[in-house]
Fold this sequence. Notes:
Subcellular location: Membrane
Oligomer: single chain
Main location: membrane
Number of helices: 6
Shape: elongated
Order of helices and strands: HHHHHH
Keywords: Membrane, Transmembrane, Transmembrane helix
Largest sheet: none
Protein name: DoxX family protein
Organism: Bradyrhizobium jicamae
Amino acid sequence: MSDVAVPAGRRWPHVAVWIVRGLLALAFLGAGGAKLYGVPMMVEEFHHIGLGQGFRYLTGGLEVFGAILLLLPRKAAFGALLLICVMIGAVITHLLVIGGSPVPAIVLLALNAVVAYSQREEIASLAKAF
């Protein structure tokens, strides 16, 4: 969806998607920031995963970058797609490596899917360019 002009009948869905994008951006800025800052729980969790602390920095950086993209009107689709990929990895990691509930990652994945779906015209236009 473009942020230029929204028909009156589509205003509420447009506002709802913006609210979801804002909440997702806050969540991923917090989670990514915790990984980049080196919060002890994050350091321990990534140690348990076994891919090294560089993977923690990569994941945190991707989360922060995706959160920023979510807030940019013409880049929100790309941020959502990036974060969907990160959350697929998180769900798999929870299920196969570290244990615990994958439900938070699944919820974040689903909310990013809603944003990506709402931006499907942008994704389709990019796909046609290639």
